[in-house]
Structure formats: C-alpha cells, structure tokens
C-alpha cells in the first residue's frame, strides 16, 4: 500500500499498473499531475502476512486539487500471486471528500 501511494505521488503509472491485479486493472491509467498528495495514514490492516493470500488495508490519503483539500478513505483488497501482492479493488468511504 505504501509503495503504491508513493508511486501515485511521483506519477509512476507503470508501477501502479504493475501492482494492480490484471483482473481489475483499468485499461487506461493516467495519474493527474495537478494532484498534490499530502499524506497517507494506514488505519487498519487485516491478514496480509507471510502465510496469507489475501489482505485488507484501510487508509486515508490526503491530497489537494485546485486549491481544495480532499480525503480519499478506502478499504482496499489485495491478493498475493506468485509471491507478489497486487491491489484488487476497494470500497470508498462515503466521507472520502472533505
């Protein structure tokens, strides 16, 4: 999760794409260079250990766009395949845009 956040802050689209599970990866992925990422807070994690094949990460990422502050609050699902973790999908919190 932290490496994906870092990739978003640096507009490293190739890394974000490479860590997105092929079954849910969007066909077109373009980072918005106007977004100024301000911080990531991991709220909770479930599973995701060495013996697990699935994991959950709940996080809040703060960012600024057009002079306005926003929060992205998501509960993300990850899956391990051949020893690597991939982002599968996530559920956004309704309070995500404050």
Lay out the secondary structure:
Layout: H1 2-9, H2 13-18, E1 36-47, E2 54-65, E3 68-81, E4 84-92
Antiparallel strand pairs: 1-2, 2-3, 3-4
Characterization of the model:
The protein is mainly β and 98 residues long. The protein has a single domain (2-92), classed as Nuclear Transport Factor 2, Chain: A (Roll), CATH 3.10.450.50. Helix content is 14%, strand content 48%. The protein contains 2 helices and 4 strands; from the N terminus they run ααββββ. It has helices at 2-9, 13-18; strands at residues 36-47, 54-65, 68-81, 84-92. It has a 4-stranded antiparallel β-sheet with strand order 1-2-3-4, covered by helices on one side. Strand 1 and strand 2 form a beta hairpin. The chain is globular, with a radius of gyration of 14 Å. The mean pLDDT is 93.
